[in-house]
Amino acid sequence: MSEALEPGAAIGILGGGQLGRMLSVAASRLGLRTHIYDPGAEPPAGHVAEKVTTAAWDDEAALRAFAASVDVITYEFENIPAATLDLLETLRPVRPNRRALAVSQDRLMEKDFLTGLGLTTAPYRDVPTLPALEAAIAEIGPQGILKTRRLGYDGKGQARLKGAEDAAGAYAEMGGAEAILEGFVQFSHEVSVIAARGVTGEVACFDPGENVHEAGILRTTAVPARLAPGQHMDAILLAGKILNALDYVGVMGVELFVTAKGLVVNEIAPRVHNSGHWTQAGCTVDQFEQHIRAVAGWPLGNGQRYADVVMENLIGEDVAKVPALAKAADVQIHLYGKGAPRPGRKMGHVNRITRG
User: Fold this and answer.
1) What pLDDT sits at residue 176?
2) What's the whole-model pTM score?
3) Among 113, 222, 225, 345, who pairs with 208 as Cys (CB 3.0-4.6 Å)?
Protein backbone atom coordinates (compact mmCIF):
# COMPACT_ATOMS: atom_id res chain seq x y z
CA MET A 1 0.00 0.00 0.00
CA SER A 2 3.06 2.30 -0.05
CA GLU A 3 1.93 3.81 -3.37
CA ALA A 4 -1.73 3.94 -2.44
CA LEU A 5 -3.56 7.25 -2.63
CA GLU A 6 -4.99 8.44 0.66
CA PRO A 7 -8.63 9.54 0.99
CA GLY A 8 -8.90 13.09 -0.27
CA ALA A 9 -6.41 12.54 -3.09
CA ALA A 10 -7.47 13.45 -6.62
CA ILE A 11 -7.71 11.33 -9.77
CA GLY A 12 -7.69 13.09 -13.13
CA ILE A 13 -9.90 11.53 -15.79
CA LEU A 14 -9.40 12.28 -19.47
CA GLY A 15 -12.83 12.26 -21.09
CA GLY A 16 -16.16 13.13 -19.56
CA GLY A 17 -18.62 10.60 -20.95
CA GLN A 18 -20.67 8.02 -19.09
CA LEU A 19 -17.67 5.87 -18.23
CA GLY A 20 -15.96 8.86 -16.63
CA ARG A 21 -19.20 9.59 -14.81
CA MET A 22 -19.38 6.11 -13.28
CA LEU A 23 -15.67 6.19 -12.44
CA SER A 24 -16.24 9.45 -10.57
CA VAL A 25 -19.09 7.95 -8.57
CA ALA A 26 -16.92 4.95 -7.65
CA ALA A 27 -14.04 7.19 -6.61
CA SER A 28 -16.29 9.30 -4.39
CA ARG A 29 -17.37 6.20 -2.45
CA LEU A 30 -13.70 5.54 -1.68
CA GLY A 31 -13.16 9.09 -0.46
CA LEU A 32 -11.25 10.13 -3.57
CA ARG A 33 -11.89 13.26 -5.62
CA THR A 34 -12.04 13.44 -9.43
CA HIS A 35 -11.17 16.12 -11.94
CA ILE A 36 -12.53 15.70 -15.49
CA TYR A 37 -10.71 17.03 -18.56
CA ASP A 38 -12.86 17.19 -21.69
CA PRO A 39 -13.05 19.52 -24.70
CA GLY A 40 -16.86 19.38 -24.72
CA ALA A 41 -19.02 21.66 -22.61
CA GLU A 42 -21.00 20.13 -19.73
CA PRO A 43 -19.87 16.50 -20.10
CA PRO A 44 -21.97 13.88 -18.27
CA ALA A 45 -19.11 13.10 -15.88
CA GLY A 46 -18.97 16.74 -14.86
CA HIS A 47 -22.30 16.38 -13.05
CA VAL A 48 -20.71 14.15 -10.39
CA ALA A 49 -17.02 15.17 -10.36
CA GLU A 50 -15.45 17.76 -8.07
CA LYS A 51 -13.81 19.69 -10.91
CA VAL A 52 -14.11 19.98 -14.67
CA THR A 53 -11.66 21.51 -17.11
CA THR A 54 -13.12 22.37 -20.50
CA ALA A 55 -10.21 22.77 -22.89
CA ALA A 56 -8.77 21.38 -26.10
CA TRP A 57 -6.47 18.37 -26.10
CA ASP A 58 -3.62 20.58 -27.35
CA ASP A 59 -4.04 23.34 -24.74
CA GLU A 60 -0.70 22.98 -22.97
CA ALA A 61 -1.43 25.49 -20.23
CA ALA A 62 -4.73 23.81 -19.38
CA LEU A 63 -3.13 20.35 -19.41
CA ARG A 64 -0.36 21.50 -17.07
CA ALA A 65 -2.86 23.04 -14.66
CA PHE A 66 -4.97 19.89 -14.78
CA ALA A 67 -1.98 17.66 -14.00
CA ALA A 68 -0.90 19.92 -11.14
CA SER A 69 -4.32 19.50 -9.49
CA VAL A 70 -4.33 15.67 -9.40
CA ASP A 71 -2.21 12.81 -8.07
CA VAL A 72 -2.69 10.29 -10.89
CA ILE A 73 -4.31 10.40 -14.34
CA THR A 74 -6.48 7.82 -16.09
CA TYR A 75 -8.79 7.92 -19.10
CA GLU A 76 -12.25 6.72 -20.10
CA PHE A 77 -11.76 6.34 -23.86
CA GLU A 78 -8.93 5.49 -26.24
CA ASN A 79 -8.87 8.29 -28.78
CA ILE A 80 -6.72 10.75 -26.87
CA PRO A 81 -4.02 12.42 -28.99
CA ALA A 82 -0.52 11.05 -28.43
CA ALA A 83 0.92 14.52 -27.84
CA THR A 84 -1.51 15.05 -24.96
CA LEU A 85 -0.32 11.93 -23.19
CA ASP A 86 3.32 12.62 -23.96
CA LEU A 87 3.03 15.87 -22.01
CA LEU A 88 0.95 14.50 -19.14
CA GLU A 89 3.27 11.54 -18.57
CA THR A 90 6.07 13.98 -17.76
CA LEU A 91 3.92 15.51 -15.02
CA ARG A 92 1.97 12.72 -13.33
CA PRO A 93 1.62 8.92 -13.46
CA VAL A 94 -0.77 7.90 -16.26
CA ARG A 95 -2.53 4.59 -15.68
CA PRO A 96 -2.99 2.50 -17.80
CA ASN A 97 0.33 3.28 -19.43
CA ARG A 98 1.07 4.87 -22.78
CA ARG A 99 1.90 1.57 -24.49
CA ALA A 100 -1.51 0.08 -23.74
CA LEU A 101 -3.20 3.08 -25.32
CA ALA A 102 -0.89 3.07 -28.35
CA VAL A 103 -1.63 -0.61 -29.03
CA SER A 104 -5.38 -0.17 -28.78
CA GLN A 105 -5.45 3.02 -30.88
CA ASP A 106 -4.21 1.23 -33.99
CA ARG A 107 -6.02 -1.93 -35.06
CA LEU A 108 -3.03 -3.19 -37.02
CA MET A 109 -0.68 -2.68 -34.09
CA GLU A 110 -3.23 -4.37 -31.82
CA LYS A 111 -3.48 -7.45 -34.04
CA ASP A 112 0.31 -7.67 -34.34
CA PHE A 113 0.63 -7.42 -30.55
CA LEU A 114 -1.95 -10.12 -29.90
CA THR A 115 -0.59 -12.58 -32.45
CA GLY A 116 2.89 -11.88 -31.11
CA LEU A 117 1.68 -13.26 -27.77
CA GLY A 118 0.60 -16.46 -29.50
CA LEU A 119 -3.11 -15.57 -29.33
CA THR A 120 -5.52 -16.19 -32.18
CA THR A 121 -7.20 -13.30 -34.01
CA ALA A 122 -9.22 -13.05 -37.19
CA PRO A 123 -7.00 -13.21 -40.29
CA TYR A 124 -5.99 -9.65 -41.16
CA ARG A 125 -4.02 -7.57 -43.61
CA ASP A 126 -2.90 -3.95 -43.75
CA VAL A 127 -4.66 -2.24 -46.69
CA PRO A 128 -3.11 1.19 -47.39
CA THR A 129 -4.41 1.21 -50.98
CA LEU A 130 -7.23 -0.27 -53.06
CA PRO A 131 -4.82 -2.67 -54.82
CA ALA A 132 -3.64 -3.79 -51.38
CA LEU A 133 -7.26 -4.48 -50.42
CA GLU A 134 -7.79 -6.51 -53.58
CA ALA A 135 -4.63 -8.50 -52.82
CA ALA A 136 -5.77 -9.05 -49.22
CA ILE A 137 -9.13 -10.36 -50.43
CA ALA A 138 -7.33 -12.81 -52.70
CA GLU A 139 -5.31 -14.05 -49.70
CA ILE A 140 -7.82 -14.29 -46.87
CA GLY A 141 -11.14 -14.43 -48.70
CA PRO A 142 -13.79 -12.01 -49.96
CA GLN A 143 -15.92 -11.94 -46.81
CA GLY A 144 -14.81 -9.68 -44.00
CA ILE A 145 -14.89 -6.23 -42.51
CA LEU A 146 -12.80 -3.30 -43.65
CA LYS A 147 -12.02 -1.02 -40.71
CA THR A 148 -10.12 2.21 -40.24
CA ARG A 149 -6.93 1.51 -38.33
CA ARG A 150 -7.61 4.41 -35.97
CA LEU A 151 -10.74 5.86 -34.41
CA GLY A 152 -14.13 4.29 -35.02
CA TYR A 153 -16.38 2.63 -32.45
CA ASP A 154 -19.96 1.35 -32.15
CA GLY A 155 -19.89 0.31 -35.80
CA LYS A 156 -18.39 3.56 -37.11
CA GLY A 157 -15.43 3.45 -39.49
CA GLN A 158 -16.38 -0.01 -40.77
CA ALA A 159 -17.62 -1.48 -44.03
CA ARG A 160 -18.72 -5.07 -44.52
CA LEU A 161 -17.57 -7.00 -47.59
CA LYS A 162 -19.80 -9.83 -48.83
CA GLY A 163 -17.77 -10.40 -51.98
CA ALA A 164 -14.81 -9.13 -54.00
CA GLU A 165 -17.12 -6.82 -55.91
CA ASP A 166 -17.61 -4.76 -52.70
CA ALA A 167 -13.93 -3.81 -52.48
CA ALA A 168 -14.03 -0.44 -54.26
CA GLY A 169 -17.13 0.76 -52.43
CA ALA A 170 -15.81 -0.33 -49.03
CA TYR A 171 -12.46 1.31 -49.64
CA ALA A 172 -14.20 4.56 -50.62
CA GLU A 173 -16.10 4.48 -47.32
CA MET A 174 -12.80 4.73 -45.46
CA GLY A 175 -12.38 8.24 -46.82
CA GLY A 176 -8.66 7.88 -47.39
CA ALA A 177 -7.95 6.71 -43.82
CA GLU A 178 -5.47 3.89 -43.22
CA ALA A 179 -7.40 0.64 -43.04
CA ILE A 180 -7.18 -3.01 -42.11
CA LEU A 181 -9.12 -5.94 -43.55
CA GLU A 182 -10.31 -8.51 -41.01
CA GLY A 183 -11.37 -11.83 -42.48
CA PHE A 184 -14.58 -13.62 -41.61
CA VAL A 185 -14.64 -15.71 -38.44
CA GLN A 186 -17.26 -18.43 -38.02
CA PHE A 187 -18.30 -18.02 -34.39
CA SER A 188 -21.29 -19.03 -32.30
CA HIS A 189 -21.31 -15.99 -30.02
CA GLU A 190 -19.17 -13.23 -28.56
CA VAL A 191 -18.04 -12.96 -24.96
CA SER A 192 -15.91 -10.46 -23.12
CA VAL A 193 -13.69 -10.62 -20.07
CA ILE A 194 -13.32 -7.58 -17.84
CA ALA A 195 -9.90 -7.95 -16.26
CA ALA A 196 -7.92 -5.83 -13.83
CA ARG A 197 -4.27 -5.56 -12.84
CA GLY A 198 -2.89 -3.62 -9.89
CA VAL A 199 0.36 -1.74 -9.40
CA THR A 200 1.89 -4.79 -7.69
CA GLY A 201 1.06 -7.03 -10.65
CA GLU A 202 -1.93 -8.82 -9.09
CA VAL A 203 -4.58 -9.79 -11.63
CA ALA A 204 -8.31 -10.29 -11.05
CA CYS A 205 -10.89 -11.15 -13.70
CA PHE A 206 -14.66 -10.92 -13.63
CA ASP A 207 -16.70 -13.76 -15.09
CA PRO A 208 -17.00 -13.59 -18.89
CA GLY A 209 -20.21 -12.00 -20.17
CA GLU A 210 -22.05 -12.92 -23.37
CA ASN A 211 -22.66 -10.01 -25.74
CA VAL A 212 -25.32 -9.31 -28.35
CA HIS A 213 -24.85 -6.43 -30.80
CA GLU A 214 -27.33 -4.65 -33.03
CA ALA A 215 -26.18 -2.34 -35.84
CA GLY A 216 -22.64 -2.48 -34.46
CA ILE A 217 -23.69 -1.31 -30.98
CA LEU A 218 -23.75 -3.49 -27.88
CA ARG A 219 -27.36 -4.23 -26.95
CA THR A 220 -27.06 -6.72 -24.08
CA THR A 221 -24.48 -8.54 -21.97
CA ALA A 222 -25.55 -11.56 -19.93
CA VAL A 223 -23.78 -13.56 -17.24
CA PRO A 224 -23.07 -16.36 -17.03
CA ALA A 225 -21.92 -16.69 -20.62
CA ARG A 226 -22.33 -19.93 -22.55
CA LEU A 227 -18.84 -21.36 -22.09
CA ALA A 228 -17.50 -24.78 -21.25
CA PRO A 229 -15.35 -24.83 -18.09
CA GLY A 230 -12.19 -25.04 -20.21
CA GLN A 231 -13.26 -22.09 -22.35
CA HIS A 232 -14.05 -20.07 -19.23
CA MET A 233 -10.56 -20.69 -17.88
CA ASP A 234 -8.92 -20.01 -21.27
CA ALA A 235 -10.71 -16.65 -21.50
CA ILE A 236 -9.45 -15.56 -18.10
CA LEU A 237 -5.90 -16.82 -18.68
CA LEU A 238 -5.51 -15.05 -22.02
CA ALA A 239 -6.83 -11.80 -20.54
CA GLY A 240 -4.23 -12.05 -17.79
CA LYS A 241 -1.54 -12.74 -20.37
CA ILE A 242 -2.44 -9.52 -22.21
CA LEU A 243 -2.41 -7.44 -19.02
CA ASN A 244 0.97 -8.76 -17.92
CA ALA A 245 2.54 -8.27 -21.35
CA LEU A 246 1.54 -4.59 -21.26
CA ASP A 247 2.58 -4.09 -17.61
CA TYR A 248 -0.98 -2.82 -17.33
CA VAL A 249 -2.56 -1.01 -14.38
CA GLY A 250 -6.34 -0.66 -14.39
CA VAL A 251 -9.33 -2.42 -15.95
CA MET A 252 -9.39 -3.71 -19.52
CA GLY A 253 -12.14 -5.19 -21.68
CA VAL A 254 -11.15 -8.16 -23.87
CA GLU A 255 -13.69 -9.18 -26.52
CA LEU A 256 -13.59 -12.79 -27.76
CA PHE A 257 -15.31 -14.86 -30.42
CA VAL A 258 -16.29 -18.39 -29.40
CA THR A 259 -15.52 -20.78 -32.24
CA ALA A 260 -15.39 -24.53 -32.76
CA LYS A 261 -11.59 -24.31 -32.73
CA GLY A 262 -11.27 -22.18 -29.61
CA LEU A 263 -11.36 -18.53 -28.57
CA VAL A 264 -10.45 -15.79 -31.04
CA VAL A 265 -9.54 -12.34 -29.71
CA ASN A 266 -11.63 -9.67 -31.41
CA GLU A 267 -10.25 -6.55 -29.74
CA ILE A 268 -9.06 -5.04 -26.47
CA ALA A 269 -10.15 -1.82 -24.80
CA PRO A 270 -7.77 -0.29 -22.21
CA ARG A 271 -10.51 1.07 -19.95
CA VAL A 272 -13.70 0.12 -18.19
CA HIS A 273 -16.05 -1.36 -20.74
CA ASN A 274 -19.73 -1.30 -21.67
CA SER A 275 -19.89 -5.10 -21.41
CA GLY A 276 -18.77 -4.87 -17.78
CA HIS A 277 -21.69 -2.79 -16.54
CA TRP A 278 -23.37 -5.95 -15.24
CA THR A 279 -20.80 -6.02 -12.42
CA GLN A 280 -22.66 -3.13 -10.77
CA ALA A 281 -25.48 -5.54 -9.86
CA GLY A 282 -23.60 -8.83 -9.76
CA CYS A 283 -20.43 -8.25 -7.74
CA THR A 284 -19.35 -6.75 -4.43
CA VAL A 285 -16.76 -4.62 -6.24
CA ASP A 286 -17.79 -3.55 -9.74
CA GLN A 287 -15.52 -2.73 -12.67
CA PHE A 288 -15.51 1.00 -11.89
CA GLU A 289 -14.38 0.61 -8.31
CA GLN A 290 -11.87 -2.01 -9.44
CA HIS A 291 -10.35 0.47 -11.90
CA ILE A 292 -10.18 3.21 -9.29
CA ARG A 293 -8.58 0.80 -6.82
CA ALA A 294 -5.97 -0.19 -9.39
CA VAL A 295 -4.96 3.28 -10.56
CA ALA A 296 -4.97 4.55 -6.96
CA GLY A 297 -2.58 1.81 -5.90
CA TRP A 298 -5.10 0.06 -3.66
CA PRO A 299 -5.47 -3.74 -3.45
CA LEU A 300 -7.91 -5.12 -6.00
CA GLY A 301 -11.36 -5.93 -4.62
CA ASN A 302 -13.58 -9.00 -4.65
CA GLY A 303 -15.09 -9.30 -8.11
CA GLN A 304 -16.68 -12.72 -7.59
CA ARG A 305 -20.14 -12.88 -9.14
CA TYR A 306 -23.01 -13.52 -6.73
CA ALA A 307 -25.95 -13.06 -9.15
CA ASP A 308 -26.91 -13.74 -12.74
CA VAL A 309 -27.43 -10.44 -14.56
CA VAL A 310 -28.52 -9.15 -17.95
CA MET A 311 -27.30 -5.67 -18.81
CA GLU A 312 -29.27 -3.82 -21.49
CA ASN A 313 -28.20 -0.54 -23.04
CA LEU A 314 -30.82 2.18 -23.35
CA ILE A 315 -30.14 3.55 -26.81
CA GLY A 316 -31.90 6.59 -28.24
CA GLU A 317 -35.62 6.52 -27.55
CA ASP A 318 -35.22 3.47 -25.30
CA VAL A 319 -34.86 5.99 -22.50
CA ALA A 320 -38.63 6.52 -22.70
CA LYS A 321 -39.00 3.10 -21.07
CA VAL A 322 -37.47 4.32 -17.81
CA PRO A 323 -40.78 5.06 -15.98
CA ALA A 324 -41.92 1.48 -16.64
CA LEU A 325 -38.52 0.05 -15.77
CA ALA A 326 -38.57 1.92 -12.47
CA LYS A 327 -41.62 -0.12 -11.45
CA ALA A 328 -40.01 -3.47 -12.24
CA ALA A 329 -38.52 -5.72 -9.61
CA ASP A 330 -34.83 -6.64 -9.71
CA VAL A 331 -33.95 -3.85 -12.14
CA GLN A 332 -31.14 -1.39 -11.49
CA ILE A 333 -31.28 1.82 -13.57
CA HIS A 334 -28.27 3.92 -14.61
CA LEU A 335 -28.89 7.11 -16.59
CA TYR A 336 -26.03 9.14 -18.00
CA GLY A 337 -27.38 12.68 -17.75
CA LYS A 338 -27.18 13.28 -21.48
CA GLY A 339 -29.33 15.68 -23.50
CA ALA A 340 -31.95 14.77 -26.09
CA PRO A 341 -31.97 11.15 -27.28
CA ARG A 342 -30.97 10.42 -30.85
CA PRO A 343 -30.46 7.21 -32.83
CA GLY A 344 -27.38 5.30 -31.66
CA ARG A 345 -26.83 7.48 -28.59
CA LYS A 346 -26.33 5.56 -25.34
CA MET A 347 -28.59 7.26 -22.81
CA GLY A 348 -28.17 4.77 -19.99
CA HIS A 349 -28.41 1.11 -19.13
CA VAL A 350 -30.29 -1.25 -16.87
CA ASN A 351 -29.09 -4.32 -15.00
CA ARG A 352 -31.70 -7.03 -14.48
CA ILE A 353 -30.97 -9.63 -11.86
CA THR A 354 -32.21 -12.91 -13.29
CA ARG A 355 -31.03 -15.11 -10.44
CA GLY A 356 -29.62 -14.03 -7.12
Assistant:
1) 84
2) 0.94
3) 225
